Amino acid sequence: MMVRKHSAAVVAVLAALGIPTPAQAATNPMPGDGRIVDGKVTESAPWAAQFYRGDGSASGPSCSASIIAVDWVLVADHCLTYGHTGKVFSVKVGSLKRGEGTLYQVERYLSKYDVTLLKLATPIQNPVIAPVADAVPTNGSEVEIYGWGKTCPVSQQCPPSPVLKQATLRIDGAAKDHKGGPALQLTHVTGNASNGDSGGPAWFGGKVVGVASTAGTRNAQYSSIAVAGTRQWIRSNAGV
């Protein structure tokens, strides 16, 4: 699911695993140029999680996510709230293939801007943790994004990627995420985000620095989780 900005209105598209089309939102973003647009297939990401709006028994995942503690998962807030009123959520971990992995139920969740912390009902067995960054990368830095998003532009109909993909983007400044919070303005280098990549991470220096919020044809806006206020909020609630 990824949110895109269309003219003056923001339109969110929740695809089977697409970035809730909030994974976008900049000055003029339109839904990503397809796939984790271009990019490549990920070979290893044991910290990756798939987010489900429900108990995981029906349909596919709605968003991409990251394991940041034994019982905490990081995702975008619009993945839970965009066009949805249910209160049951779950995640699958342990597989790069969409729809596969071990299922864990969400006990509760906390949100700040377009960032949400999911508290799992039971700890993940032998998890690989995605470390959260303590500093925002400088402009010009290149980050790596990950997601199971659609393999075509959000404006077109096509299935999401059956496997986790990744792409490189460049930080070109600051922006706002789908909920008005601080975000990284990212520009296509080898690819871009699309529907279903929402909630997925942006990595820099071996740590997570952003969460997919909105996207355009050649750019994306990732909620900045290393800014002081958000970073302290994550630490005080998830303990990491």
TrEMBL record:
One of its GO terms (molecular function) is serine-type endopeptidase activity. Keywords: Disulfide bond, Hydrolase, Protease, Signal. One of its GO terms (biological process) is proteolysis. Belongs to the peptidase S1 family. This is Serine protease. Residues 1-25 form the signal peptide. InterPro entries: Peptidase_S1, Peptidase_S1_PA, Peptidase_S1_PA_chymotrypsin, Peptidase_S1A, Trypsin_dom. Residues 36-239 form the Peptidase S1 domain. The keyword Transferase does not apply.
